[in-house]
Amino acid sequence: TGGRPDGARGLRFAPVAPNKDDKVTVPAGHSQSVVIRWGEPILRGAPAFDPDRQTAKAQAGQFGYNNDFLSLLPLDERNRQILVANHEYTDEILMFRGYDPANPTREQVEIAWAAHGLSVVVVEGERTSGRLTPVTRHHLNRRLHTTSEFKVTGPAAGSTLLKTSVDPSGTKVLGTLNNCAGGTTPWGTTLHGEENFNQYFANGSSDTDKRYGVGTAATERKWERFDKRFDLKQEPNEVHRFGWVVELDPYDPDFTPRKRTALGRFKHEAAQPRLTADGRPVVYMGDDERFDYFYKFVSSKRMKKGNSRAAREHNRTLLDEGTLYVAKLTGDSPASQIDGTGKLPVDGEFDGSGQWIPLATGNTSHVEGMTADEVYIFTRLAGDKVGATKMDRPEDVEPSPRTGRVYVALTNNTDRGKAGKAGADEANPRNANKHGQILELAENWDDPAGDGFAWRLFLVAGDPEDPATYFAGFPKNKVSPISCPDNVAFDPHGNLWISTDGNQLGSHDGLFGVATQGERRGELKQFLTVPIGAETCGPLIQDRRVLVAVQHPGEVDGASVEKPASAWPDGPGTIVRPSVVAVWRKDGGDIGV
Ligand code: FEO
Ligand code: CA
Ligand code: CA
Ligand code: CA
Q1: N or C: which terminal CB in the chain sees fewer CB atoms within 10 Å?
Q2: Residue 220 within any structural domain of the chain
Q3: What is the ipTM score, two decimals?
């Protein structure tokens, strides 16, 4: 390999050491650039970003705040691709000079509405580097935010539980909120998980509101003062219209994005499909909450190949018909050997078998005492009733395009084993779990539509010097420390890349690559770190480029526009801006080869 660093193919780079530097640190021999920042104009007529002259109208044509999930889709234009980004949430104290949290102004609230949601922006590459630059005013560029129209589809569309005073049809929702991670489908659309939607709604009172963590008083952002739909005392069903997987067709600028009720309602982190042998999509999904569940949806319809109008129309219905399942995991070692410390059981692995429990198929409920509409809209309660396994916060999920095995990031759960809470089990083997783990799931007979699977923990995260860690059996003196795995993606060589959120080892968050097959399975290497206060999101690994979304840089207790904790990306005296970053090899070679 001519002096190239050692490692599995695709992971030949010198690992980045843990650090707390206020920048994106990349391996020796690599370059980086910002692709797009919060506030950069992407639509015709949108002004350049001016932090002291923000308006809702400007923001609605600019790249949103807090980029999380990223997708790049091929485009039939020279060196161009379509970038799709989620904008998970706003942090007003870091956005507005002189922000008064007790008294947000209408303009500030409307800017926040416009800064949420999704961006579609065409980007152009260079032949000689991995740099990407936005093509502003491209006809495919789009912003979808809190007042954009979304269509509710699938079996629960039109349910009385989804009707409001402004939408008696129960099928037309304004806005998408808290889009965290997502997925890209083989039929050329993107999926976006509505995660912590509970925080936007005031005055919750029902038991179901409680199960979804909706507060009983005013919200922190106080949107309910400016639009009554955020006040559940006045509009109790509005909250049921959030917490879905959204599907978008980035190739069609006129497409009204869909909220897919067949995939259930919970704090959707992500949604990533895989096809059955006969072409039906199976979508894997996590509910990111301590002690919540892991799900899959199996479509009853086959994907049509090609890009004809008929194929596209057909494929737009794939996620509306099928069966929703929740996972139950059973360990194969005696419970007495799972002591909550992370010590491996006698058989040397945290592993076992699993069962997919059906919750609903179309309009038929499989859960006693719940209608199908209730199963889809209050999916967490259905999981409770059937005894699904309480997991350590299921975050992003990704099936390996090579092996079909599904990787689930379980980010952490410091409440595991606390009084009155579930204790350690073989899949969630540490009490007070600060660092998280990654589970590897293999469907029986490699059939993603089946009802049984085998599972094992692939990584038990933490400092490799901590005995309560595990790197698929790879020697622990040769791996990078990792904490709080969140987003996962595969590279073109079949390696798993993992980004982190909330590192508990005294370093900043970052991005890691690890082989999942062969002799080097488990050899985890750190590829980059992010600035102060930031989380690493949306990793995308192409042949010659790594793309990451640097989310919430500078988000540190006590920080504000006046007292910034970070000067990223534009240096001292400038406002901190969440941004997308591209990284490439200086010599133009493929990443890690
Ligand atoms: Fe938005 Fe579960 O991370
Ligand atoms: Ca075992
Ligand atoms: Ca996340
Ligand atoms: Ca996270």
Answers
A1: N
A2: no
A3: 0.94
**201 in a domain, yes or no?**
no
Closest residue by Cα to atom 1, ligand 1, is 180
How many whole angstroms from 314 Cα to the centroid of ligand 3? 31
Which residues make Cβ contacts (< 8 Å) with residue 486, sequence separation at least 6?
181, 395, 396, 409, 411, 498, 499, 500, 501, 502, 535, 536, 537
Cα separation, 337 vs 346, whole angstroms:
7
> Would you write out the chain's pLDDT as a tens digit for each of its 593 residues?
457 899 999 999 999 999 999 999 999 999 999 999 999 999 999 999 999 999 999 999 999 999 999 999 999 999 999 999 999 999 999 999 999 999 999 999 999 999 999 999 999 999 889 999 999 999 999 999 999 999 999 999 999 999 999 999 999 999 999 999 999 999 999 999 999 999 999 999 999 999 999 999 999 999 999 999 999 999 999 999 999 999 999 999 999 999 999 999 999 999 999 999 999 999 999 999 999 999 999 999 999 999 899 999 999 999 999 999 999 999 999 999 999 999 999 999 999 999 999 999 999 999 999 999 999 999 999 999 999 999 999 999 999 999 999 999 999 999 999 999 999 999 999 999 999 999 999 999 999 999 999 999 999 999 999 999 999 999 999 999 999 999 999 999 999 999 999 999 999 999 999 999 999 999 999 999 999 999 999 999 999 999 999 999 999 999 999 999 999 999 999 999 999 999 999 999 999 99
Instruction: Tell whether 323 is covered by a domain.
Output: yes
3-state helix, strand, coil in the chain (%, to 5): 15, 35, 55
Number of folded domains that form the chain? 1
- Which burial class, exposed, middle or buried, applies to 556 when counting CB atoms under 10 A from its CB (0-12, 13-18, 19+)? middle
* Spacing, Cα 202 to ligand 3 middle (Å): 24
CB atoms within 10 A of CB 351: 19
> Which ligand 1 atom is the nearest neighbour of the CA of 68?
1
The pTM is what?
0.98
Neighbours of 340 (CB within 10 A): 17
Output b/e per residue, 257-279; b: 16+ Cβ within 10 A.
bbbbbbbbbbbbbbbbbbbbeee
**Is 5 a domain residue?**
no
Report CA(486)–ligand 4 centroid distance (Å): 6
Nearest atom (ligand 1) to Cα of 195? 1
Give the ligand at the shortest distance from the Cα of 288.
1
Which domain, by its residues, includes 35? 30-195+243-585
Question: Residue 350 CA: which ligand is closest?
Answer: 2
Give distance in angstroms: CA of 495 to centre of ligand 3.
Answer: 20
Residue 469 CA to ligand 2 center (angstroms) comes to 15
Length of the chain: 593
| Closest ligand 1 atom to 180 CA | 1
Of ligand 1's atoms, which has the minimum distance to the CA of residue 269? 2
